[in-house]
Request: fold
Amino acid sequence: MSDCVFCNIVAGKLPAQKVYEDDQLLAFPSIDPKAETHLLVIPKQHIENLNALTAEHAELMAHLMLTLPDIAAANGLTGYRIITNTGKESGQEVFHMHFHILGGATLPGFN
Ligand code: AMP
Reply:
C-alpha cells in the first residue's frame, strides 16, 4: 500500500536500520523507543492487524512467532515483552501488523 509507512520501509522508500530480514519478515528499531531496546517486527505482506488474519496466514504467523525469540536473542535480549496493538482503541497507529519487542532493562509490571 503506497500510503503505508511500513510498506514504504519494506519497499526501501523510507529508511530503517534493519536488524533482521528474510523473504517474509523485516525488523527494525522503533523511531520512538519506549524501552532501552524497542524493535518492530513486521510481515513484508501488508496485513492490517491480527483481526485481518485468515487461515491463509497460518504459515507466515508460525514463522513470525518462531522468529521473534531469535531476533530478541540476536539483539542481546533474554527477557522481553511482545506487544501487538490491534485496532484504534488499543492505540494502534500504524495499520500494518507489527510486533513490538521491548526489553533491555527490567520492564515495569504489566499485570
Ligand atoms: P503502534 O502504536 O502499535 O501502531 O506502533 C507504531 C510504532 O511504529 C511505534 O513504535 C512508532 O514509533 C513506530 N514507527 C512509526 N513510524 C516509524 C518509522 N518510520 N520507522 C520506525 N518506526 C516507526
User: Anything to note?
Assistant: The helical segments are 5-10, 58-74.
